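User: I'm putting together notes for a lab meeting next week and I want to include a structural view of one of the chains we've been expressing. I don't have a solved structure, so I'd like a prediction I can at least talk through. The sequence is below, exactly as it appears in our construct file.
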Amino acid sequence: MNRTWLSACSMLVLVCGSAAADISLGQTTSLPAPQRPSGVATGDFNGDGQVDLAVTTDTPDKITVFPGNGAGGFGAGVNHPTGAGSGPQDITAVDFDADGDLDLAVVLQNAGVLRVFVNNGGTFTGGASVAIGDQARGLAAADLDADGDTDFAVANRNDNTVTLVYDQGLTLSAAVLTAGGEPRVVTAGDLTGDGVIDLAVTNHDDRNATIYRGAGGGAFVFHSTVSTGANTRPEGIAAGDLDADGDLDLAVTTNSGTTLNFVTVLRNLGGGSFSGPVNFTTGGVNPGSVKLADLDADGDLDAVATNQDSGTIGVLTNTGAASFAAPQVVSTGATPDGMAVANLFGELTAEIVVANRDANTVTVTENLSAGFCPSDFDQSGFVDTDDFTAFVVAFEAGTDNADIDGSGFVDTDDFDTFVRFFEAGC
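Assistant: Thanks for the context. Below is the predicted structure for the 426-residue chain, given as structure tokens.
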């Protein structure tokens, strides 16, 4: 991977620029997986310093962990059963028991529960669980009650609810929010700008998204309903500051048939009030998952969407002011489902990992983008204390641009990574 720009950055005085860059994608490699891979999470699960993959797979129901080698390659998968007929789907990595390693939270769709699988030296065993709703999907992880640990929110497709799951210190408790028609995916972030985590959920049948305002202490109240488009239905959703104005916007995958297939942007106008939908094609049919990440390391968030009926992903470069260029379309495998964006090569830009449900593969698309300095957080052209302050604010708010290591969530690893680059001056 060609990232020679790093050596040109000198200690604490840089001129890195902030213009939009191009996302340069390399080869896509395919990793054989057990039957019907669905959700995918990334992290160092075995403590060797390399990024591994955890994938939910079928027949029998299990989590398959592929150890990474730090150069984009992976060893043979190791299976961890989740229970016969449990139906593992969405998955995320979090240190649930605060012992310094990453555990896994998994939606067991058929069983109607969220279960934590505890990491014991790289081996996972079933831990705390709690009942969720019918046909649960779209797992989001965030500190919902501001008590310092990670909680979860799950959209329940068949009973029109969102389940809130709270970490109570090695146990889980749950509460329920009423959603719209057939909720698909939920995302978390400070959408109203008051320093408290809020939620947004896509309602497929209602063609809109519901915003729930965090009321403190883990409680949420209805805030607003935002149209995602009269002619399309929403699926995936992600929150991030797409126009660099300091608040979180929403990117939603929407579709209708073979002709209308979009990443739809809802710009935050302040206080959690959103603009009307603006559509950008994904280059394929039936977009599902969407992720936001700074793929070209130019300081703004780009978008990736899975095109489920095309066997592709659409990679969209942010050209400024929440506008995206035409997508780069990359072949994956049949029915791309779960997706993660993670740094697999130990460099500054992150790769795209996709579980292809009907191909029985996981694909990794290499990112060759050169990019700019991650520690020039305010994009001033210099690394100084203003960057540190700006990062701390974003980190405490849990915003996507504080996801420095590209893991998909904001945690202490991002803080450590930022400090490392800041001390190095780039």
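A couple of points you could mention at the meeting. The first strand starts at residue 25 and ends at 32. The CA atoms of residues 44 and 51 lie 5 Å apart.

User: Perfect, that's what I needed.
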